[in-house]
Write a structure and sequence with these properties.
about 40% helix, about 60 residues, two-stranded antiparallel sheet, alpha+beta
Length: about 60
């Protein structure tokens, strides 16, 4: 279910527990690099449904 912070809407698309923080940070950095052109501001990205599906698939 979408939620709001101020005037920005967001939706959690998936959740994964990593074996340790180092792996989690490395995965997050890889996502930031892969989708850098889609960054709106800070941690906010404007992703297509296809891109979201790609991220979900990479977590399995």
């Amino acid at each position: 279910m979408p939620s709001a912070i101020g005037s920005a809407w967001f939706e959690m698309i998936c959740n994964k527990k990593f074996p340790n923080r180092k792996i989690a940070v490395s995965f997050e950095q890889a996502l930031h690099n892969a989708y850098s052109e889609k960054r709106i501001r800070g941690e906010w990205f404007d992703l297509t449904d296809t891109e979201v599906d790609e991220i979900r698939a990479s977590l399995n």
